[in-house]
Write a structure and sequence with these properties.
The protein is mainly beta and 111 residues long. The chain contains no helices and nine strands. This is MoaF-like domain-containing protein.
Length: 111
């Protein structure tokens, strides 16, 4: 995790994250903001992973958060906790090489 002056604003909290493509997740962040446990909802129900985060604050209430999963999937979020929105970019291995997708989403704090 990239060191910041204060704990990330999402540290110790849980959010429902709804992505513009219909995917939905329950994201639970560790109390120190260094780890994330995501759980798939809807079509992704039953999938989950605990990952180490790389975090940097880019503006008040706005955080850049990134991680790499064992599958090779990489995810980068720009979380705006004031507006409760996320811009997410993920990449994965697809036919013919690496594929990247840019999405938007909404957050709802549930814990």
């Amino acid at each position: 995790m990239t060191e910041t002056a204060a704990l990330p604003g999402f540290a110790g909290r849980t959010y429902l994250f709804e992505v513009d493509n219909g995917a939905a997740f329950r994201n639970t962040y560790s109390a120190d903001g260094k780890r994330l446990r995501w759980e798939g909802l809807g079509e992704s129900a039953g999938q989950w992973l605990d990952v180490e985060l790389h975090v940097a604050q880019v503006a008040p209430q706005i955080w850049f958060v990134s991680w790499t999963e064992d599958s090779g999937l990489t995810i980068s979020h720009v979380m705006d906790l004031g507006a409760m929105t996320v811009r997410v970019f993920w990449t994965y291995e697809g036919e013919g090489g690496r594929v990247g997708e840019l999405h938007t989403g909404r957050l709802q704090q549930v814990g």
